[in-house]
Write a structure and sequence with these properties.
This protein has three domains: 3-220, Heat Shock Protein 90 (2-Layer Sandwich), CATH 3.30.565.10; 227-360, Ribosomal Protein S5, domain 2 (2-Layer Sandwich); 485-625, Heat shock protein 90, C-terminal domain (Four Helix Bundle (Hemerythrin (Met), subunit A), Up-down Bundle). Strand 8 and strand 9 (218-220) form a beta hairpin. It starts with 6 loop residues before the first strand and ends with a helix. It is elongated and about 125 Å long. It has a nine-stranded mixed β-sheet with strand order 1-6-5-4-7-3-2-8-9, covered by helices on one side. Strands 16-15-18-17-20-19 form a six-stranded mixed β-sheet. It has a five-stranded mixed β-sheet with strand order 10-11-14-12-13, sandwiched between helices. The protein is built from 20 helices and 23 strands.
């Protein structure tokens, strides 16, 4: 076609606005242009392959699909070609000269005055082809449509708001791009740079991508079949392990993995790994999970936190969707129905994988829980939908386990005593603090298992863990202890002691002022003279302590003092009271008992110096009588 027949056309107004923004604004991730163009070529080949299913002869002699990339450093030209479906004149105008109903129009509608911020969205809203003008001062596109009688077309633009169209002499189908690279963007002409970008974003595209050097020698850049796209039966344990190390940079083998391909109304593939060791930044609030998102084998982003809930952020792996737009942003991911369905299904798969490990490989699950147990516990406030699964997966130490070993609720229930109705636990700041607690005395005597909740998050977990398998979880340091048949004989003795100690307990309450809500006889103590418990509806001592450490304002609730009527100290104090209810030493003794009970549970006492003075006085009296 001669210059006289060359057509000069204007871009649609929105495209002009977009091009102006890209050319004159800074964009930190310019390499995205190559991903977009290679992806366009891959789409064009997919369309050609689909159309040829009904007429294979339309492909002629060229039935091997491919994408080619080459750089001419002398002329500063980057070339990309494919033998895909190509475009007619009208399709060029529709696809390049006009913003259609893709994400591009949405992108333009969201533009603001902050150009740097706006530019960060490029590559996310379907602006694909236009991104080439970030690195090019001129682009020539030559294309011929598969199966079309009309001649090939040549499209050319400098990104200035207009383009030209004319016929070309290209005979074979497909599209060729001639990209004239800007002077300050010549890094994109270097083979190593091209190679790294394509392997980063497009390594798993179905069609071969060839990089030709200056001598015409070609190198295939994507000769690896993505492991997640292969049948599970075709992948060895060693290959799964190698791929995990490749994506996680972890030298250790993964504990387990799950590989799933879903077909139907929604098509996607997941390959999810459970690491063997927690990363150093696991508890970083800004840390997202370790999943990489692909769309039709094309890499989109790492650490796509929308693919799994936060309490599973330790999981590594890949999600590859057939149903997402290629240029999907994090904002779109948060609202996308496809992502929500993938998230729900992937969460189920991970929990099923962990449950299988917990049942069939208990030692391995113990290792997992040591590394990730506290993060898993976050799920009790983040994932109500899977609460039953989390209840089966949670683990605690107990008075029946060694330090650092754990028991699950299912195993706890299996080894419960026949007469036992409930599941018992005690909370505190450490194993040492709880296992010497006076609250455990009756449980040790009767060999009843008590769970140790010794992580700060456990106080929040039990708020969602009210029951399991029809059995309540009860705090041994809260409420009036009732072990049913297990303390039937002790209850008889308790009734008798309540009569004997009635006046003494009333005097105890009166002389300790506002310290106590109540003084009562208990069956829970075997060795200690007394202990403090919280009322059923009040905050426990450990929760109060945690909130105070977090500088939270806490209104301390009055506690209940439970006394052991069989202990020599309590028997002695009761006799002292019976002999002289007005004895001034009784108040000091009462205060001493309360302070000792506070210390025994790990709480602070209000007047440490006063406590020491009382102890010294009593010791002096005892030594004087000795």
């Amino acid at each position: 076609m001669t210059a006289a027949t060359q057509e000069k056309m204007e871009f649609q107004a929105e495209v002009k606005q977009l091009l102006n923004l890209m050319i004159h604004s800074l964009y930190s991730n310019k390499e995205i242009f190559l991903r977009e163009l290679v992806s366009n070529s891959s789409d064009a080949i997919d369309k050609a392959r689909y159309e040829s299913l009904t007429s294979i002869e339309s492909l002629g002699e060229d039935k091997t699909f491919r994408i080619k990339v080459s750089a001419d450093k002398d002329k500063s030209i980057l070339r990309i070609s494919d033998n895909g479906v190509g475009m007619t004149r009208q399709e060029i105008i529709q696809n390049i000269g006009t913003i259609a109903s893709s994400g591009t129009k949405k992108f333009v509608e969201q533009l603001s005055g902050d150009q740097k911020k706006d530019m960060s969205l490029i590559g996310q809203f379907g602006v694909g082809f236009y991104s080439v003008f970030m690195v090019a001062d001129k682009v020539i596109l030559t294309t011929k449509r598969l199966g079309a009688a009309e001649p090939a077309m040549r499209w050319e633009s400098t990104g200035d708001g207009s383009y030209t169209l004319e016929e070309a002499d290209k005979q074979d189908r497909g599209t060729e791009l001639e990209i004239h690279i800007k002077e300050d963007e010549k890094e994109f002409l270097e083979d190593y740079r091209i190679r790294s970008i394509i392997r980063k974003y497009s390594e798993y595209i179905t069609h071969p991508i060839y990089l030709a050097d200056k001598d015409g020698k070609e190198e295939v850049l994507n000769d690896k079949a993505p492991i997640w796209r292969r049948s599970k039966s075709d992948v060895t344990k060693e290959q799964y392990g190698e791929f995990y190390k490749h994506i996680s940079f972890d030298e250790e083998e993964p504990l387990a993995w799950t590989h799933n391909q879903v077909e139907g109304a929604l098509e996607y593939t997941t390959l999810l790994y459970i690491p063997g060791k927690a990363p150093f930044d696991l508890y970083n609030p800004e840390k997202s999970n370790g999943l990489s998102l692909y769309v039709k084998r094309i890499f989109i982003m790492n650490d796509a936190k929308e693919l799994l809930p936060g309490y599973l952020r330790f999981v590594r792996g890949v999600v590859d969707s057939e149903d997402l737009p290629l240029n999907v942003s994090r904002e779109i991911l948060q609202k996308n129905a496809v992502i929500q369905k993938i998230n729900k299904a992937a969460t189920k798969k991970v929990l099923q994988l962990l449950e299988t490990m917990a049942k069939e490989e208990k030692d391995k699950y113990q290792k997992f829980w040591k590394e990730f147990g506290n993060v898993m516990k976050e799920g009790f406030h983040m994932n109500w939908e899977n609460l039953d699964e989390l209840k089966r997966l949670i683990r605690f130490e107990s008075n029946k386990t060694a330090a650092g070993e754990y028991v699950g609720l299912e195993d706890y229930v299996i080894r419960m005593k026949a007469e036992q109705k409930d599941i018992y636990y005690i909370s505190g700041e450490s194993r040492a603090a709880v296992e010497h607690s006076p609250h455990l005395e009756v449980f040790k005597a009767k060999e009843i298992e008590v769970l140790y909740l010794i992580d700060p998050i456990d106080e929040w977990v039990v708020q969602s863990l009210a029951d399991f398998d029809g059995k309540k979880l009860l705090n041994v340091a809260k409420g009036d202890l009732d072990l049913g048949e297990l303390t039937k004989e002790e209850k008889k003795s308790q009734k008798q002691a309540e009569g004997k100690y009635k006046d003494f307990m009333k005097d105890f309450e009166e002389k300790t002022g506002d310290l106590l809500k109540e003084v009562r006889v208990t069956t829970r103590l075997k060795e200690s003279p007394c202990c403090l418990v919280a009322d059923e509806s009040d905050m426990g001592a450990n929760m109060e302590r945690i909130l105070k450490m977090a500088n939270q304002k806490v209104t301390a609730s009055k506690r209940i003092l439970e006394i052991n009527p069989d202990h020599a100290i309590m028997q002695g104090l009761q006799k002292m009271y019976a002999a002289d209810p007005a004895n001034p030493r009784l108040k000091d003794w009462y205060q001493l008992m309360v302070d000792q009970a506070l210390l025994a549970e790990g709480s602070e006492i209000k007047d440490p110096a006063g406590y020491v003075a009382k102890v010294n006085t009593f010791l002096t009296d005892m030594l004087a009588k000795a």
